[in-house]
């Protein structure tokens, strides 16, 4: 039954629940306060009645007639009328006077005169003590005052005066104030309902008129969406405490969900989120190292109603981005190389076909032999100097591309590249050499110089335990202001979209192997890239 009531209550709207709970709280509070008030009134009434009967008892005890007549056999005849007059005048329940032997000399019921007083609490009064006590009788609870009667000299006690009056019981007291209590409960209930109504309206507005179950569902969906995103997400509030940390971010940072609520500096030393929080300015496409992992990050302020209330950072493992960019770039470069080689072959075939049609067979033969000799010369040099066929294929492809653009690709005859150590992956080296040559060819193609060339040297330096790659060109060069940014992913001096990837890939691979990049350049005269990669760790 209780579970059904709980389930039924849970199905009610938040407004209805708050109104019911608030109304009940108000009613309980009013009833509790009313009970305390009635108790206080009852205690005050008890005290007031006690003081009243004590004052009456003291007055009676000072009567000379009573002092003289108490203890005499017929003294009740003078004492009884006095006691009754005072009782009726003061509207008390009874006034009883008895001597030291507890013989009554006055009583509202005359038949009780001459009998023993048997209250049970009169003992101290016979020892000249005055006090009050409560006694329960047939008519209810009475409060009684005991006052000793002294002789005319005031030294010897001759009797005791007992004055008693009934106290109203709680039921009668509540009944007497029933209208006041009902009015208080009704007024409090109405005020409570109105207050609950305005409170729930305010809460609903702040919660966008959503119910708690709907908010809980939205939070669950939000958590699922945030954790399903392939990027790390970290958000902080105005106190610089972490409020959002998805699973991807926790994995990269190697932390648990317990990081939520902690200061950002305790989890990420150099997140720069506090700076974003203070400046309110975003930082886009920034590279940083988190827990030994190089990531690409975006940092943005969280702005609500024109005020910065927090900051959020999204980051992605840069290795994944570089690998993807490398794959896309490699496919494009390979396609361009095949196209250039095909174009070169077609040009030669057209030339030879024309010479044959002109019956210039000797010239056609000489053209064939010259082209074959050039190819053979380069191929022989590469086959003797380089042991990796994929790199050989790359250089041959780049040579065809360069020749198509009227550029001579010169491979240094002293180039030497034996089998690579296990720590250097051939595909990484292909990415470095391929992008260097491609950038050099593109730069040289833009120059106005009559003779255009690109120079390549691969120097396997056994003594220095390093591989040196040198690529020179006599192209347009690199502007001074661009030298610091050319290795940034997405940056390019070319306005064409999708550029700015090649040099970023080169930089990433060289850094991964602990190598260095040296650049020498002069605008309109060309550039030189010197890359040194350690052969051992």
Write the layout of secondary structure elements.
Elements: H1 2-11, H2 14-61, H3 64-69, H4 76-90, E1 94-99, E2 104-106, E3 131-137, E4 140-150, E5 157-166, H5 170-176, H6 178-206, H7 212-228, E6 232-237, E7 242-245, H8 247-253, H9 264-267, H10 273-279, E8 283-290, E9 293-304, E10 307-317, H11 318-357, H12 361-385, H13 389-404, E11 408-411, H14 426-445, E12 453-461, E13 466-473, H15 502-512, E14 516-522, E15 526-534
Parallel strand pairs: 11-12
Antiparallel strand pairs: 1-2, 1-5, 3-4, 4-5, 6-7, 6-10, 8-9, 9-10, 12-13, 13-15, 14-15
Q: What does this protein look like?
A:
This protein is of the alpha+beta class and 537 residues long. The chain has three domains: 15-174, 2-Layer Sandwich (Beta-Lactamase), CATH 3.30.450.20; 230-317, 2-Layer Sandwich (Beta-Lactamase), CATH 3.30.450.20; 321-534, Heat Shock Protein 90. The protein contains 15 helices and 15 strands. A five-stranded antiparallel β-sheet has the order 2-1-5-4-3. The protein has a five-stranded antiparallel β-sheet with strand order 7-6-10-9-8. β4 and β5 (157-166) form a beta hairpin. It is rod-shaped and about 175 Å long.
Which structural traits does this protein have?
single chain, about 525 residues, alpha+beta, Beta-Lactamase, Heat Shock Protein 90, 3 domains, 5-stranded antiparallel sheet, 15 helices
Order of secondary-structure elements: HHHHEEEEEHHHEEHHHEEEHHHEHEEHEE
Can you identify the CATH class of the largest domain? Alpha Beta
Oligomer: single chain
* CATH architectural group of the largest domain: 2-Layer Sandwich
CATH topology of the largest domain, what is it called? Heat Shock Protein 90
